[in-house]
Amino acid sequence: MRKILVLTYGSMLTIGLASCGQKQLDVTEPSEKGGPCDPLIDPATADGPHCVEGLACDPVAGETDVWVCGEPLQIHGMVIDLQTGEPLEGALVNGQDRTGAPLGEVAVTDAMGHYELQVSAPRQPDGELASDVNYTLQAFARDYLPFPSGIRVALPIHAAEAVYDEALAISVIEGPLTTVGLVMLPDALRGGVTVTGTVGGIDPGGTLVVAEGVSGDAVAQYGVADRTGAYTIFNVQAGAASIRGYRRGLELAATATTVAAADLEKVDLTAVAEGEENLAAVSGSVQIVNAPGGSVTSVVLVPVSVFNATLERGPVPFGLRSPDPGLEPDVTGTFRIPGVPAGTYKVLAAFENDRLVRDPDISIGGTELQEVTVVAGEAVTVDAGFKITEALAVVAPGAEEPTATSATPTFEFADDSSEKSYIVRVFDVFGELVWENAMVPSVSGSATVQVPYEGPALTSGLYYQFRAISLDGKGVPLSATEDLRGVFVVE
């Protein structure tokens, strides 16, 4: 009979090897709710701490390598065509925690567009769900734009909303945010093949896998590996493609393949280096000017192949952020992102919602969009610093999250006291410019600026974003609204 050491602190059992408060635990007996477990143990072998049948082995929130048993947690929902409301069969749904790490394996929607996604759930020591845990969803489907992408962001789904289902003996999260609406791609980007494979390495989950070289000027098609390393990329166009993976702490050899008419399977990516200390690091600095005291920001890296030049954004590979994933922005000067795999990246500062933006005045140094090429294992410093300034606050629509509007919305944002005029632009869900008013006059006696939409008819059911830029008397940009705000959907 195999024994392990367990540390005891009151009613909490902590698996470990320390010498304090040790006792012997019979690991052949499965643990009830709140009991210790090891996620790598096969319950059938009974050769380590494991849960009774029907319970899941999940980590204790805030602890390292401490796992307990609790009722399984699933996210239930649907994937639909955003415009028609029709269910989409065969769509893939990933779950991510607040750091961007995958929650488990991918769920596939059935004929009714329904999915059931099993997720790892941080626990309290007694096995109950941790109350402050939230998740986000990703969804991919043939002939559809990935979610989130472009102007659309994923809103958090809270574990506190889970309801225990007695018939299923599991906790279930299901609500408006678990229904994902996907937008059909333009004709020119539909009809490609599907590429599948596995990402190597000890911890491949969350790797951004990109089909580079076959999308022309469009953003390259991509997928995200689940916790096992399995990935799928839809809509890959014909040609000589290079399949590349991007993830913090994981260097992968690119795989060359020829895309024709048939789907491609087993296009695997081999790990050539692992661990932050064995990969490159990207360093640099920011300068925050004309902003409230105590302002802090973050810096992220986006591979150029998936960067939307119009919107100046793209998907951020797991971990390629300063500070570390899941932490609140804290950059005030220098920054460093370790574990960066080889590739060419756009370096985005003040990209997240922090009431700051990259200074839009390109007539002065340190405001151009930065790009770096990283060689495997070699540290690189961003040549120019970033000037960051206070953003123009969005009032409506989309101040905090996407807002439903009429087909003729009025855009409202905070007045810039030193401006002489504004530019207001509207982009569609693909990042294309729909309308622009470059002659919005300054205001007097009002804390906000209101600009009615006067462009071509907007499509019901689709998402759009407005952006505003303030200008001085010489037409030099002073500030702008934030990258992720101002998003709305037309009713």
List keywords for this structure.
mainly beta; 491 residues; 6-stranded mixed sheet; 40 strands; 5-stranded mixed sheet
Write the layout of secondary structure elements.
Blueprint (H helix, E strand, L loop, with lengths): L2 E7 L2 E4 L6 E5 L29 E4 L7 E4 L2 E9 L10 E5 L10 E2 L5 E6 L14 E7 L16 E2 L4 E3 L4 E4 L5 E4 L10 E6 L9 E5 L8 E4 L5 E7 L2 E8 L3 E3 L2 E5 L11 E4 L5 E9 L10 E5 L17 E2 L11 E7 L2 E7 L6 E3 L11 E5 L5 E2 L4 E5 L3 E3 L6 E3 L4 E5 L6 E8 L4 E9 L6 E5 L10 E9 L5 E4 L6 E4 L1
Parallel strand pairs: 6-13, 6-14, 23-30, 23-31, 33-40
Antiparallel strand pairs: 1-2, 1-3, 4-5, 6-9, 7-8, 7-10, 10-11, 12-13, 15-18, 16-17, 16-19, 19-21, 20-22, 23-26, 24-25, 24-27, 27-29, 28-31, 32-34, 34-37, 35-36, 35-38, 38-39, 38-40
Main sheet characteristics:
6 strands, mixed
Count of helical stretches: 0
The total of beta strands comes to 40
Strand % is 35-45%
Average pLDDT metric: 90
Spatial gap, N to C terminus: 65 Å
Choose one word for the global shape.
globular
Helical/strand content category:
mainly beta
- As residue ranges, the low-confidence spans are 1-25
Spatial extent as radius of gyration: 24 Å
Helix content: under 10%
